[in-house]
Amino acid sequence: MDESLFKKNSSSKSGITSCCKKCHNLAEVRADRSEYQKRYRAANASRLNEYLRNRYSAKHESYVEYRKANKEAIRAAQQERYCKNHEEILRRQRGYAKQSREGLADSYIRRVLIVGTSLSSSDVPQILVQLKRLEMLIKKTVEDEANEKC
User: Fold this and answer.
1) What span, in angstroms and rounded, lies between the C-alpha atoms of 72 and 79?
2) What is the domain range of residue 56?
3) Percentages of the chain per state (helix, strand, coil), in multiples of 5
4) What is the largest CA-CA distance in the chain?
5) DSSP assignment, residue 125?
6) What residue ranges of the chain have pLDDT lower than 50?
């Protein structure tokens, strides 16, 4: 058996894949594999979801512990990064704010509605956001038409 006809696979016992390069690249094999994966995921959805949930939970816990243990170092690194990239950060923030205003994003409209009140953005119902968006679009259209006449 000529090992040069097989792809390397460090996780297998022999160190090579179980099928040759030619077979491995065939579209039929890929299609069969993808169909098998779809069937397997559908049949084992709850088990896979539980596995991912547990895996995320463990990673999240270790992340929280690390953040608590290294609070000052993280804060110092963030401060240093901010100082080095201050102008770039401000430029991006201004661009995001402009895009939010021009696109009339929900977050922008919610901020407009709650300015000067004790409300939070979660207190504003979606229907009110939609109505305010319509009002703002109408005002903008009227202003644009008035500017065109001048």
Assistant:
1) 10
2) 3-69
3) 80, 5, 15
4) 85
5) -
6) none
What's the token pair of residue 76?
């110092």
Q: Which pTM value belongs to this model?
A: 0.40
Helix/strand/coil for 77: helix
At 103, which amino acid appears? Answer: G
Q: Return d(Cα 28, Cα 36) in angstroms, integer.
A: 12
103-121 pLDDT, tens digit each? 888 988 999 999 999 999 8
Q: Do residue 65 and residue 8 come from a single domain?
A: yes
Query: 119 in a domain, yes or no?
Result: yes
Tell me if 82 is assigned to some domain.
no
* Bridge partners of residue 8, in order along the sequence: 16
* Domain end residue (candidates: 52, 69, 86): 69
